[in-house]
Amino acid sequence: MTGSIEAPPEISGPEFAAISTLLHERTGIRLAAGKETLVMGRLGRRLRQLGLPTYADYVRLLHHPGGEEVRQAIDLLTTNETSFFRESPHFDYLREVVVPAHASAHRIFRLWSAASSSGEEAYTAAMVLAENPPAGSFEIVGTDVSTRIIAGARRGLYPIEAAARIPMPMLRKYWLKGRDEYAGLMAAGSTLREKVTFRHANLLDDLGDLGRFDVILLRNVMIYFDHPTKASLIRRLQDMLYPRGHLIVSLSESLNAVPSRLRMVRPSIYRLPAVEGLDG
């Protein structure tokens, strides 16, 4: 005899609004109307794990003191799609323009992957910089709002299929092929691990303790933010750039409607002037 499979709970308009509001308040990400199916797809299993019959029960749990379930919800709801050498023109610009311009600087070159997801962006930058070393060495910081996804980035393990866009010489030089229980996986080698540090961070928080950077990658993030959140974020990030430092957004994004001191040098690539009000 077999039991019937219970249908997953449906989310009501007020329940969706409550979850959307909480996500926006904590991360700046705004779920547009019509994303109810996405929320149910990502949270449905969690409700079953907790034995909760309705999203109303889950909303009540999200408001419990301590906030542990809020962190779980953020992990499940934040988008983590990425790949190695995604939007490759940005890495060409890093190699051809940014690194040579750093030659006269007498300090470590610093790059921040500000929404690094599972780490492919940060490791891609590390490969490019290892092949084209800036004067004074370099370091990369990768951050993400999802604690789960950052833990995966630190492990540096990926399906071998993820290497499709990594040039073969780089793949052989910087990655290890998994064996036995790691068969079918590749692991970041010591050269990359020594240069890349990952940490959990929320872009809505004050992140001045990260220091200043020559390049900040903020790609495929602002599409999820409303205009006030974008403006606030850009104001803070421009203060974390060195003079002549670059902020790079995705090829489909622009800062045209966001007031800032940054100047566009190419579509999706912005630079902080060397002196306030001047460029050069």
From TrEMBL:
Matches recorded under SMART domains: MeTrc (SM00138)
Keyword annotations from UniProtKB, A to Z: Methyltransferase, S-adenosyl-L-methionine, Transferase
Entry EC number(s): 2.1.1.80
GO annotation (BP), single: methylation
PROSITE patterns: CHER
Domain CheR-type methyltransferase: 4-275
Keyword NAD in annotation: no
Name of the featured protein: protein-glutamate O-methyltransferase
Species, as recorded: Dactylosporangium sucinum
Originating gene: cheR-1
